[in-house]
């Protein structure tokens, strides 16, 4: 039997999934980080090899020998798909394909890891495009149409610029906006007499408690404090001095979600309203109106929501209530997606998609 392999190569872990021709997942495994840009070819191949071998052990438990690379007369894989973080150019893909082909005995599809989010496109006949929307620590949106075989053709891409320049809708953006809105309320209250100022908020309370402070303006010191140096600060120093600045803010996202969805705190809901509007701004770049104005030209690579599946991925959009805010804002702007799904395991989704393509051929 030939199997379908998908490997999700990320900055924090490698995930592999193996499916049979019916799309049943037979083997799964997780390994260490495999961002190609960070590791280089040798370390990348080591991480991938170890993870795929671990996944194969549950598929071929009777095999005591190393199954990779497979002998030419006994191929293991009918197809393979690698979504690799740190791969953003044809040159990088060209470097990876030969050693991966040698390892697996079949030439894999290699693309950026965002492509895996759009894997469900091949499993639905009623959509012609997919939009992958990542909202975790960072954020990016990418649109696709089906290419040849298992390949996806990228149509448009917005964001993914990193925490300093973007990551709209992601954890850093949510944390930064929380601090901004807390300080904005304090600024607006400054023109009133002290006895008339009311800046109470459960989000504000949670954030101040998180850093062990009472004055909201101490947040300015915390946010701008330099990143820790190799000389580890004293254990008596505040915890934030041992955190990089990006994490100081992105770590606040769970507090915002708790205040918004458990406490129904107006300030927290305002924060999420702001971050989701900016994320939807990016999604709208990839979309065209359902009713096109006569004589108006629209970019050829935009898609209609009614003909597309929106594939969410990332820890923040794993929360139903956050996804609903995004979808409600899209609908308010006239975009109702044909299908919506959340991909909690991109490797599994990719392996199932490969099997579906194989059955259709």
What is this structure, in a nutshell?
This protein is an alpha/beta fold.
Straight-line distance between termini = 17 Å
Structural class: alpha/beta
Shape: globular
DSSP summary, beta strand count: 12
The low-confidence runs, each spanning 5 or more residues with pLDDT under 50, are none
Q: What is the chain-wise order of helices and strands?
A: EEEHEHEEEEHHHHHHEEEHEH
Strand content: 15-25%
Mean residue pLDDT? 89
Rg, Cα atoms, Å: 23 Å
Word description of this protein:
With 361 residues, this protein is of the alpha/beta class. Helices cover 39% and strands 19% of the residues. The chain is built from ten helices and twelve strands. The chain has helices at 36-59, 90-104, 171-189, 202-211, 218-224, 245-250, 253-261, 266-286, 320-332, 346-360; strands spanning 3-9, 14-19, 25-31, 77-84, 109-112, 129-135, 139-146, 152-159, 287-288, 303-304, 308-313, 339-342. A five-stranded mixed sheet has the order 3-2-1-4-5, with helices on both faces. A hairpin with a 5-residue loop joins strand 7 (139-146) and strand 8. Helix 3 crosses helix 8, helix 7 packs across helix 8 and helix 8 (266-286) crosses helix 9. The radius of gyration is 23 Å and the shape is globular.
């Amino acid at each position: 039997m030939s199997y379908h392999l998908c490997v999700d190569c990320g900055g924090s872990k490698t995930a592999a999934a193996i499916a049979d021709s019916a799309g049943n997942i037979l083997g799964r495994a997780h390994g260490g980080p495999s961002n190609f840009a960070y590791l280089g070819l040798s370390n990348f191949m080591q991480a991938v090899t170890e993870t795929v071998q671990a996944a194969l052990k549950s598929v071929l438990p009777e095999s005591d020998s190393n199954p990779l690379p497979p002998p030419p007369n006994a191929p293991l894989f009918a197809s393979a798909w690698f979504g690799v973080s740190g791969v953003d150019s044809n040159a990088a893909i060209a470097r990876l394909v030969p050693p991966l082909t040698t390892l697996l005995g079949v030439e894999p599809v290699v693309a950026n890891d965002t492509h895996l989010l759009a894997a469900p496109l091949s499993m639905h006949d009623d959509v012609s495009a997919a939009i992958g929307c990542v909202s975790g620590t960072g954020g990016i949106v990418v649109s696709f149409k089906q290419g040849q075989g298992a390949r996806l053709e990228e149509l448009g891409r917005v964001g993914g610029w990193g925490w300093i320049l973007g990551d709209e809708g992601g954890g850093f953006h949510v944390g930064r906006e929380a601090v901004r809105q807390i300080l904005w309320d304090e600024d607006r209250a400054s023109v009133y007499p002290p006895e008339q100022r009311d800046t109470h908020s459960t989000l504000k309370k949670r954030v101040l408690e998180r850093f062990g402070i009472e004055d909201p303006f101490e947040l300015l010191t915390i946010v701008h404090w330099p990143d820790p140096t190799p000389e580890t600060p004293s254990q008596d120093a505040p915890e934030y001095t041992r955190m990089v600045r990006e994490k100081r803010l992105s770590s606040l996202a769970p507090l915002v979600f708790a205040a918004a969805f458990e406490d129904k705190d107006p300030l927290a809901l305002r924060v999420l309203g702001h971050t989701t509007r900016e994320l939807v701004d990016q999604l709208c770049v990839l979309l065209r109106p359902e009713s096109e104005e006569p004589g108006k030209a629209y970019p050829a690579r935009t898609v209609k929501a009614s003909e597309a599946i929106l594939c969410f991925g990332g820890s923040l959009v794993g929360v139903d209530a956050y996804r609903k805010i995004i979808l409600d804002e899209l609908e308010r702007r006239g975009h109702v997606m044909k299908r919506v799904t959340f991909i909690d395991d991109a490797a599994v989704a990719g392996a199932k998609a490969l099997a579906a393509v194989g059955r259709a051929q």
